[in-house]
Amino acid sequence: xxxxxxxxxxxxxxxESKFADAVKSNTPMLDRIMKYxxxxxxxxLRPMFVFLSAKLAGTINESTYRAAALVELLHTATLVHDxxxxxxxxxxxxxxxxxxxxNKIAVLVGDxxxxxxxxxxxxxxxxxxxxxxxxxxxxxxxxxLLQIEKARKxxxxxxxxxxxxxxxxxxxxxxxxAVGAYSATGNHDVTDKMxxxxxxxxxxFQIKDDLFDYGKADIGKxxxxxxxxxxxxxxxxxxxxxVDKTLRRRLIYILKNENRRRESVNFVIETxxxxxxxxxxxxxxxxxxDEALNILHSFPHSEVRDAFEELVRYxxxxxx
Length: 320
What we know:
Number of helices: 14
Largest sheet: 2 strands, antiparallel
CATH topology: Farnesyl Diphosphate Synthase
CATH architecture: Orthogonal Bundle
């Protein structure tokens, strides 16, 4: 992503400093935890989408930095809470907050991050920022709960899958693009256009993430992890709707009862691959990516647009 870093590299450096200031606490333990979280440097994809959306539509300003910080605060809060829900001991190669400080403190840390986001917006009268991101948090919660409900019943349906990932994953990326555009323009039409763009990229991003479950590369989570957790993913949905009844029953039995057995998980992966589930999911991923690029190309050609296209293509070409 050389062009992306060339176009917004200085803004990302400034953002790092502003974000560190935004999460500081006078409570010693909480401040230690915040510093620990900051050391877990992720790719900062969502702030990148905020800054590029702002620069594509207008000019980056202080409101844009606050918008990026709000997005990152809410994203980090949801990750901390997700690790508690999933009983996950690792995050980005580091011990998770709940692994080191236990669940009670992890939940409170997530709450603290949410409150810092609220205060950042209300203290600066960024009420539209807050409205856009609050809608995303609501959708993320709805998507997570819907996924849990469907995993229990294994009621697999492609429309439900897209509803889940549209809410659970795409909503935050969609909001990042919307709030970036709004911070630079105050224009609701441009904001809505970028919100749709972000949703399409977010859906493509999640399908790519689901496809990693069927790969062999070291991508930071075990192959077959989604199967073990009975998560709905597009490759398995496609397969279950196309194999014969006997094989379908066997696959469902494995998902319900043998999803922790390595040989059973391997059987599911091989069946999905052989049935064309991987190829179908890849096709859908590229369709959503190309729809997003069509929206992007409605803006005049510029270095910013080229960098943005590079970032969009990265979401589907990435190796981890």
